């Protein structure tokens, strides 16, 4: 592994939600953080909170040319030790109202971008002595959910990518794992509660309670809890874990 004084993590979708929590958690643990997101303004706010360890790069991960350019910038500063593929989008609609363009957009962010980042950055990890790739999936990585066919397909595909690369890089000292959250306190969750409220006539608080009741604990996961799992998978304690899918969902998938 890279030395403790030069460890670096790359986080996509870093400006809010899970990505923000992951970026700040790794910065607190002494990592230099490459924080990637579309909004330069939001990234600047993250940098102010996280301090000098946060290095920002505004990029739309669905733009292949821009993402490849971002990888070159990252590698010019040295090989990262950890890659957290967190950026993700969803489309909530019945199958017959999900367009091919919707599917392509979701797949570009949720699958193609992680594929490109892995392809471009993992060889540098190997050359530097090893590393960790952590893909942020979902409970829908391993099960279905109605009205989310494009999203479910993308998260299943991301888990397949995780397992394939885990085998391919198993003897190269790079581990590849999935973290599969349930409902987390993010903008995506806020959008879901608003959609449920609009569709059912419930208040947003009632919608929130209905979604929380889907798991055994009856609560929504905090972004910081997902970040803690990522820190574990990046640690030496997790050096023998690869190809795994860690559910953090309050018991929903169980």
Automatic annotation (TrEMBL):
Q: Name one GO biological process term.
A: monocarboxylic acid metabolic process
Which Pfam families does the UniProt entry name for this protein? adh_short_C2
Into which family does the record put it? Belongs to the short-chain dehydrogenases/reductases (SDR) family.
Report what the protein is called.
SDR family oxidoreductase
Q: Which organism is it from?
A: Corallococcus llansteffanensis
């Amino acid at each position: 592994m890279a030395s403790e004084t030069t460890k670096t993590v790359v986080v996509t979708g870093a400006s809010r939600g899970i990505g923000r929590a992951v970026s700040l958690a790794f910065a607190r643990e002494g990592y230099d953080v490459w924080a990637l997101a579309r909004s330069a303004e939001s990234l600047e706010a993250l940098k102010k909170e996280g301090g000098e360890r946060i290095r920002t790069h505004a990029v739309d991960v669905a733009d292949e040319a821009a993402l490849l350019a971002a990888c070159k910038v990252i590698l010019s500063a040295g090989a990262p030790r950890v890659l957290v593929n967190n950026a993700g989008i969803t489309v909530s609609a019945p199958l017959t109202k999900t367009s091919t363009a919707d599917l392509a957009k979701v797949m570009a962010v949720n699958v193609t971008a992680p594929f490109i980042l892995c392809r471009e950055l993992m060889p540098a990890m190997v050359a530097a002595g090893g590393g960790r790739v952590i893909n942020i999936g979902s409970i829908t990585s391993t099960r279905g959910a109605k009205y989310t066919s494009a999203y479910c397909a993308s998260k299943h595909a991301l888990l397949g990518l995780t397992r394939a690369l885990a085998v391919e890089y198993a003897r190269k000292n790079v581990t590849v794992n999935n973290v599969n959250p349930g409902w987390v306190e993010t903008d995506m969750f806020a959008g879901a509660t608003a959609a449920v409220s609009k569709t059912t006539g419930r208040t947003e608080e009632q919608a929130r309670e209905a979604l929380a009741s889907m798991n055994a604990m009856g609560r929504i996961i905090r972004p910081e809890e997902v970040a803690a799992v990522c820190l574990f998978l990046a640690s030496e304690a997790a050096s023998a874990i690869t190809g795994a899918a860690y559910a953090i969902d309050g018991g929903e998938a169980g």
